[in-house]
Amino acid sequence: MSGKEEFIEIYRENIIREGSDALLDYLENKSDFFFCPASAKFHGAYTGGLCDHSLNVYHCLKDYLARERVQELYGLEVSPESVAIAALLHDLCKIGCYKAGSRNVKNEQTGQWEKVPTFFYEDPMPYGHGEKSVYIISGFMKLKREEAMAIRWHMGFSGSEDSRLVGQALEQYPLAFALSVADMEATYFLEGEQNT
Q1: What is the Cα–Cα distance from 133 to 51, expressed in whole angstroms?
Q2: Which of 20, 105, 108, 173 has CB atoms 3.0–4.6 Å from 149's, for a disulfide?
Q3: Which residue range(s) make up the domain with 54?
Q4: What is the pTM of this model?
């Protein structure tokens, strides 16, 4: 099964909210979601990387929420729909931002410069990271507050926001903390440079 097929299967099985069909149609037919990378140079820097990253975050989030210690500490009861929404849709802000191109890299063995494919990041709607994803989703379906906060703050302390606000959001909305952990696990451990 391809990443796109897995994404659509998980989406359809779990996300049944009003407007979800229109959002999925947008992702499939009116955006580059299934073809764009997750980043220009780092994790998922390949065609289809964003879809793969979203799936990795989904699986990491499910695993994190199922951990016995997490349940003991927080007693989180997050619906399968909220898990799918938060994980699969957290990076919609990257749609339409990556352009394929090439750059010159020196071959260490030959000493010659070679053209290699790359992606360039150009955001046509610089609305922010997590907040832009919330904005896009909200154009199709209503988010629960905890889902919106999780998506908005999924970068955790690795973003450039005021750390007091980040800490406050992660403390008040446990799903935001869990999504941040899942995003970092997927980014740095499953998709990091040493794993590509």
Answers
A1: 14
A2: 173
A3: 3-98+128-195
A4: 0.91
